[in-house]
């Protein structure tokens, strides 16, 4: 009987210990659910390192092309502005050119005429007698060759003068054929305006060609009639773009009536009226363009047959 009791007690205690172990295991397994711990955030994946070839390319690009396209365009614009400023003449505005007839007297006490020259520009100086005929030049002497460059066709009465400096002043002496007295002119650089064409008219003197023409040729009678407002019979009036000039075509030549002075082309006959309102009548070769001086101002007159 005792043995049976001992066996039953042993089985009882084994059962109790087994049940307590299972309960403890269950509590341990359920404890995380009652107080859940935050799950760790996933760590970012490391970026792939550039290859050695890419590093070499980037270094080569930065060394050879350090500027962006926008910076290159900006540099070109600045360079263009700089070159324009260097090439522009001194002053805040572009220089202006003009043309005029400059009377010159050779008597003592006169004022030396001034011709305005610009650096890098050509000024044509045309020597004429009192009637406007071109007077050939025999020689000239320049005061400052370092400041002015002079070109001369020895068969003409024209000098081409170019300025070599921004500022400067000199004079030039011009000897005309058949005239022993030189014509003196002042050349000035650096003015706001410059002369592109000047007619230097020598007052009170005639060239050899003018004197010979006066000896061998008289003004046609038709020019005297033209001064009275009567063109010769058969003359046909032509169209001109200047109301101060009238031109007729007559026997293959032109007849011209104006209050101004004909500068070009060279006339073949001339007659002038007397009185307060001076008129000039000219006979000249047919030409589509005339250069006329009106009170010292040069005018380009175009002639056409549009009225025919």
Automatic annotation (TrEMBL):
- Keyword Signal: yes or no? yes
Which top-level group of life is the source organism from? Bacteria
Q: Where is the composition biased (Pro residues)?
A: 35-51
The UniProt keywords, alphabetically, are: Signal
Report if keyword Iron is assigned: no
Q: Give the region (Disordered) as residue ranges.
A: 25-63
**What range does the record give for the signal peptide?**
1-20
Q: What is this protein called?
A: Intracellular multiplication protein IcmK
Gene for this chain: icmK_1
């Amino acid at each position: 009987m005792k043995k049976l009791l001992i066996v039953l007690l042993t089985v009882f205690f084994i059962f109790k210990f087994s049940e307590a172990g299972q309960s403890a295991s269950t509590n341990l397994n359920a404890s995380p659910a009652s107080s859940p711990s935050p799950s760790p955030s996933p760590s970012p994946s490391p970026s792939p390192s550039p290859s050695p070839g890419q590093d070499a390319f980037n270094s080569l690009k930065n060394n050879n092309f350090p500027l962006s396209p926008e910076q290159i365009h900006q540099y070109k614009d600045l360079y263009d502005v700089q070159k324009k400023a260097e090439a522009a003449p001194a002053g805040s505005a572009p220089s202006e050119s003009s043309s005029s007839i400059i009377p010159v007297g050779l008597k003592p006490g006169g004022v030396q005429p001034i011709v305005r020259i610009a650096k890098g520009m050509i000024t044509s100086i045309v020597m004429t007698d009192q009637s406007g005929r071109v007077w050939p030049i025999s020689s000239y002497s320049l005061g400052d060759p370092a400041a002015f460059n002079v070109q001369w066709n020895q068969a003409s009465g024209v000098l081409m003068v170019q300025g070599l400096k921004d500022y400067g002043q000199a004079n030039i002496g011009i000897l005309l054929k058949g005239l022993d007295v030189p014509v003196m002119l002042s050349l000035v650089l650096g003015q706001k305006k410059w002369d592109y064409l000047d007619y230097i008219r020598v007052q009170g003197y005639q060239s050899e060609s003018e004197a010979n023409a006066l000896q061998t040729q008289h003004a046609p009678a038709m020019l005297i009639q033209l001064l009275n407002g009567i063109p010769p019979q058969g003359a046909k009036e032509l169209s001109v773009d200047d109301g101060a000039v009238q031109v007729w075509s007559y026997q293959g030549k032109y007849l011209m009536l104006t209050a101004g002075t004909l500068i070009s082309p060279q006339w073949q006959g001339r007659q002038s009226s007397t009185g307060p309102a001076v008129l000039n009548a000219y006979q000249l070769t047919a030409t589509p363009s005339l250069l006329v001086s009106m009170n010292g101002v040069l005018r380009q007159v175009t002639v056409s047959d549009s009225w025919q």
